[in-house]
Records
---
Amino acid sequence: MFGLLKGFGVTVSQIPKKKVTLQYPDVKPNWPDRFRGVHKFNPNLCIVCNQCARICPTSCISLSGSRGEDKKLHIETYDINFEICILCDLCTEVCPTEAIQMTDTFELAEYNRDALYKNMEWLVENGKQHAQRKGLIGEASVHDANDTDEVAGKAGEK
Amino acid sequence: MFDWFDWSAHPLNVQTFLAMLIGSLIVLGVVLGCVTYAILLERKIIGYMQLRIGPNRVGPWGLFQTIADVLKLLLKEDIIPNKADKTLFAIAPIISYAPAFMVLAVVPFTASHLFTAGLDVGILYYIALSAISVIGIVLGGWASNNKYAIIGALRSAAQMISYEIPLAMSILGVVLMAGSLNIVKIVEAQKNFPYVWYVVPQILGFIVFLIAATAELSRAPFDLPESESELVSGYFTEYSGFRFAFYMLAEYVYLIAMSGLAAALFFGGWSGPLLPGWLWYVIKAGAFIFLMFWTRATMPRIRVDQLMSFSWKVLIPLALLNLLLTATWKIFF
């Protein structure tokens, strides 16, 4: 009988408490460092090994490259279809040079399905914006965003 | 100007009829405003009780949220299902809404009784009309030709008809105390001996009234007719657009009418110190409405197999006991 009144007391005591709502578009939560958002891509690091496209569970990555003067493969097109991408992080896991990585963006709502088919330029631009948000670079190029030598060194150790 | 709205003093001619029409339109406008902000307040209060902010994107503090919602509903397509009984489907919301609005005629919102019919059978009128709105709900559920709608409608029929009885019986105690069925006279009788609002001598009746009124309005914890977790939306599952808005409107107008009735019967209506009468009425009815929202944020839904036995085995005996005590009290004083 008095349990009912107790319940009323509980609900009314919630009113003055601080609200936990975040005003989402204006205020965003702090994403964890390993948040798996939309990819960024660094064409300078890519060695066109095709491992990302092979491991992708939804086959949403399609890429093509060509052998240049120096007998090295250079990436030409790199497209991710975000209609079916499940942001599972596997491409990043297998990438030997960390050319494809994930950022903290996730807002990909579009009015038509074609707009979700993102090409290499878009992914590079996304990487630039991500670096700016993180305060890693000012207006520098993507090439400086990832310290190429360090990454290459890491790749060499592997 | 105000005696122009005093229907009982004039014969029913064209002028009086026009005055009545204008008066009812004014009441409708006021009630729509009240409903708009009752809905907003409900969402806000429940939000605050759940550590949320509630609607706050449309206008400052979400003040235009409900208006935006209603506009959206009015622009929506009015879908009538193929297998539905089209005529009944179309008129059911109107049947549901009309009594909810009509009962406002006997609720004395001010001390000067503007727009209040001083019916000598006010209570009877109220109870009789509020029983009609069940028909609108049952018709709507039946005409939808949808299993969830039918289940909701039948539940609603069972629930509302069962809870009418304790509601009426709890009011009877007040009627015995005041010696009148006229709501205006009941409010005035609360100024006589024992010089307190009837909520004190009629506390048992008031508790029964509260529970029965909550069930009658089919609000939580008695929201079985439209329980979203079991039935999609209960009796208005198939409704959309304007007719859906009508059902929602009926529900909230009925809530306001019930709060007005509670304020008149148990809290002395417009009487109170310092402030004008209508403001006291708003405060008392508002407190009742707030209690309803508070209950909704607190209570889980009652189990469907306990619903009927609670009405018949608990509330009605309590209301009868209250009647007996009141009658005994009347004999000795």
---
Amino acid sequence: MSGPSLDDVTDTPDELDDETAGKLVEEAEEVQDMTGEVCPYPQVEAKKAVQRLDTGELLVQETDHVPSTENVPRAVGDDADAKVWRSGDGLYRIYLEKR
Amino acid sequence: MVSQLLLAAVVGIGLGVFLQKGRFCFVHAFRDLFAFKDSRVTKGVLAATTLTMLFWSIAYELGYYQGFWTPGWGLTGLVGGFVFGIGMTYAGGCASGTLYRAGQGYLHFWLTLAAMGVGYAVFTVLFPTLKAVYFEPLTFGEGLSLFTVSPVPAPVLALLVTVGVVFVYATVVGRERRRAEEGDADRAVAADGGRPSPAPVAGFRSLVGGTRRYLAGFREIDDWVAASKRPWNPITAALGITAIAVVWFTQVSIVGITGPEARWTGYLLQQVGVDSGSFAYWGSVLFKGNGVRLTVDMVMIVAVIFGAFLAAYWSGDFSIRVPKRRRLPNAIGGGFLMGAGSRLAPGCNIGNIYSGLAELSVHSFVATVGIVAGVYVMTHWIYRDVGCAV
């Protein structure tokens, strides 16, 4: 993907199973509690944090803001690979692995 | 009256469902376009406005409509729109976004709604002064819809505007694609048989391809219940909103949000003992001298909150979300600026960018420029540490 283009349709980010999602939090370099935050702050904080990471390191954002599950992966673009875990009752984790 | 209330309930719930499922947020539409060229919701807004304009022009031509909303045009739209744009970007949700997220369980946006109410009340108190020092000097002409003055029939005008919109859109998309392909010149040459096609042609081809992919997406759905719980494409939301807006236009009025909200503020204050009707703005402007009472559009916007709740609950996206303390200034300050700005303009993102442009109101062209400029400035301020793409 060469950055979001005008032709992109809505992509649902890849989903993780619950067990892996739980384990990955322990391995994360940084965990950001973004519950209670709305756009665009999760995007801005994700971009800032990804800039601080080394290749292969993991950033986890915990959020209860639905649009962030799509907007945060898009905002970091090519800087990180994104996966999203949905609890099913309004809590989400966004896993960003620095490229 | 009962049928009107039923209509308001159905229209409001429908709007709430489509706004929530499509994450149809006007802040997102412009902020994320400026910040990192994300245009998914922008396309949804463009599609909804253009399609609504086409259908409304037909309804107008046939006489099946209840009236346009055309405030006097001038710099009020630019100034008020700018204040509103700043406010909605800071708050994190536009007038419609605030409503549907309130239904989704965000206490942040209930606070924003309350702060908007304060904005409406402060504006109302200051209205006699503002009329003399702001509205009269900054309003240049009578409000009008181009449909009413156009020498060609409204649907023809709407079709011409649509062709223009599609042409500009195709050109922009075509240029973007060419820029993306520049680093990969061999492939571009191969695809175009050695000669690159003009930007509008390439863009139009991509528009047709995108539409085809969108329609094909529906054929791939085997479990409609599961699919309904996932987020919907903003284009689906745009189509749904268009259909609802046509019903509302033929039966009641254009779709607006902050007008009814400002009426709610006067109505609720009346319930706690304030003589709202004695204030010129509530009494003679908003309630048109008919007394402070419940109107059908007030019922409709409450139904939007309820519709968004139903959609969010169904999707597993409903939960009571408590805002972080450091975001309270966003909810309160942003809400206040939205309330005040939407009165200064007048009109919010739905009144101006959606309905106003769809009815080709001269005032709304100016107000849209103001709102988008406000979003642009505020986006650059919020993203000051990480930078914007536009």
